[in-house]
């Protein structure tokens, strides 16, 4: 009998218990072992559940119990999750987690401990909720050199943008709904400001490129400044606005990585990824583009990935099967200011032609965008230019009397 401990009984943790008890027979069959949840650690009490007797409040009970072989950490946050996970691994227990903050910050260190102890540290649920992406990237695509990964990695912001685009719903109402549905992080700033997507693209890039990419080295911009007017200009351009995380490795091994809202063409596979769904494009040198799609957040989709990792730990007891990357001292990430991309801008003006002439002078050739219902302003899309040049040119537009009302990157996916 394999004894398991669950740390956290919130949205994901309660889903893990639900999936485990509902599908226990098939789960045990797939794991090849009988399994039981011995403890559930949480700060609160949960009376009236069929498994209410499992709840404990002291982590020491779990770490000191040799019968507990696999621990699922679904509490979230960096502390005390890091200390708890580290101690479990050091005690010879395999750990699975849905906690991207933990993996993005401490993945290399925890993987090194797991490898040394010959236990597993798995985190399929940390990216893309219920979408299988970590295992395919690490195992099924292992024969490829991965050149690029780009995707919609945050369910909450994609849900908000979809509600804004399709229903004209106010940002705050859409966020409230995402929180009620259990999609958002405890502090939704992490979703809205792109921090959650940044953690996820860091995890994917670390697996793909074999070295730890730290969130603090990644330029990150969220969707809080996106307006319904920007949405209309994107439509006039022939696309939609999405929050995109992307990472690309050049021939020297340097990584360009960024999270920001972006115009994506209506024909792009990412354009049709709506609601809480995530879509992740992986470009391999042998496979070409492979796209992963599914529910990126929510109780049961995420729990599905956590329980699958638990099964893997049980089935592969004594075999290290986790993805692996090393912590690197030198920074592998290129300064985003040294990279190039196209931009959409929206400026206030009395005469659109004059504003567009000024834009040409400052940005080079531009493509005008017109939304008939919006007066006293004009939108345009630049060619590929340097990030720094774009920043300077936008400032110069303002100095010339054309206040910038919106500025979003334009992608060619
Ligand atoms: N919700 C989602 O759709 C997804 C979430 N994730 C990740 O999964 C993790 C959990 O998310 P979610 O379930 O939504 O979060 P919740 O806040 O709903 O659940 C966390 C639970 O853990 C408990 N907890 C927190 N700290 C401790 C502690 N020190 N000791 C014991 N219990 C503790 C909390 O108690 P209390 O409420 O009293 O603080 C709460 O019950 C996060 O890392 C999140 O980023 C990943 C993919 C999708
Ligand atoms: N808050 C996250 C939850 C899953 O990672 C999201 O909205 O994607």
From TrEMBL:
Sequence positions that bind L-homoserine: 185
GO biological process, one term: threonine biosynthetic process
UniProt cross-references to PANTHER family, sorted A to Z: HOMOSERINE DEHYDROGENASE (PTHR43331:SF1)
Domain of life: Bacteria
Pfam family, one: Homoserine_dh
Binding site for NADPH: 100
Sequence ranges assigned to domain Aspartate/homoserine dehydrogenase NAD-binding in this UniProt record: 8-124
Enzyme class of the recorded protein, top EC level: oxidoreductase
Entry keyword annotation includes Oxidoreductase: yes
Annotated NADP(+) binding sites: 7-14
Active-site residues annotated for this sequence: 200
Family: Belongs to the homoserine dehydrogenase family.
InterPro entries xrefs: Asp/hSer_DH_NAD-bd, HDH, HDH_cat, HDH_CS, NAD(P)-bd_dom_sf
SUPFAM superfamilies (UniProt xref): Glyceraldehyde-3-phosphate dehydrogenase-like, C-terminal domain, NAD(P)-binding Rossmann-fold domains
Pathway participation: Amino-acid biosynthesis; L-methionine biosynthesis via de novo pathway; L-homoserine from L-aspartate: step 3/3; Amino-acid biosynthesis; L-threonine biosynthesis; L-threonine from L-aspartate: step 3/5
UniProtKB keywords: Amino-acid biosynthesis, Methionine biosynthesis, NADP, Oxidoreductase, Sodium, Threonine biosynthesis
Stated name of the protein: Homoserine dehydrogenase
Residue ranges annotated for the Homoserine dehydrogenase catalytic domain, each copy included: 132-311
PROSITE patterns the UniProt entry points to: HOMOSER_DHGENASE (PS01042)
Signal peptide interval: none
A molecular function (GO) term: homoserine dehydrogenase activity
Catalyzed reactions: L-homoserine + NADP(+) = L-aspartate 4-semialdehyde + NADPH + H(+)
Enzyme Commission numbers on file: 1.1.1.3
């Amino acid at each position: 009998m394999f004894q398991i401990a669950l740390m956290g009984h919130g949205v994901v943790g309660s889903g893990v218990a639900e999936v485990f008890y509902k599908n226990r027979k098939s789960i045990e069959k797939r794991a090849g072992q009988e399994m039981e949840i011995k403890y559930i650690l949480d700060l609160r009490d949960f009376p009236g559940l069929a498994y209410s007797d499992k709840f404990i409040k002291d982590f020491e009970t779990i770490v000191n119990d040799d019968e507990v072989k696999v621990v699922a950490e679904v509490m979230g946050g960096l502390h005390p999750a890091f200390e708890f996970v580290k101690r479990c691994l050091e005690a010879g227990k395999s750990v699975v987690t849905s906690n991207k903050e933990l993996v993005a910050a401490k993945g290399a260190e925890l993987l090194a401990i797991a490898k040394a102890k010959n236990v597993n540290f798995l985190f399929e649920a940390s990216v893309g909720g219920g979408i299988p992406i970590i295992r395919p990237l690490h195992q099924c695509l292992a024969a490829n050199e991965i050149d690029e990964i780009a995707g919609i990695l945050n369910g909450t912001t994609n849900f908000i943008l979809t509600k804004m685009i399709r229903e004209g719903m106010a940002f705050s109402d859409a966020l409230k709904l995402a929180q009620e549905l259990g999609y958002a992080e405890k502090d939704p700033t992490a979703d809205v400001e792109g921090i959650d997507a940044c953690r996820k693209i860091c995890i994917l890039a670390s697996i793909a490129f074999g070295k730890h990419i730290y969130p603090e080295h990644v330029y990150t911009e969220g969707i809080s400044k996106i307006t319904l007017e920007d949405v209309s200009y994107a439509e006039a351009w022939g696309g939609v606005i999405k929050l995109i995380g992307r990472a690309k490795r050049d021939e020297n091994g340097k990584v360009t990585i960024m999270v920001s809202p972006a115009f994506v063409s209506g024909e792009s596979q990412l354009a049709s990824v709506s609601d809480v769904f995530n879509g992740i494009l992986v470009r391999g040198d042998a496979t070409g583009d492979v796209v992963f799609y599914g529910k990126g957040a929510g109780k049961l989709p995420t729990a599905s990935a956590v329980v699958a990792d638990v099964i893997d730990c049980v089935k592969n007891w004594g075999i290290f099967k986790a993805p692996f990357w090393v912590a690197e001292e030198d920074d592998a990430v290129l300064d985003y200011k040294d990279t190039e991309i196209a931009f959409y801008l929206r400026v206030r003006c009395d005469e659109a032609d004059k504003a567009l002439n000024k834009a040409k002078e400052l940005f080079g050739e531009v493509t005008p965008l017109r939304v008939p219902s919006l007066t006293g302003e004009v939108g345009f899309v630049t060619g590929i230019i340097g990030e720094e040049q774009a920043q300077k040119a936008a400032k110069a537009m303002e100095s010339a009397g054309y206040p910038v009302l919106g500025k979003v990157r334009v992608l060619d996916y």
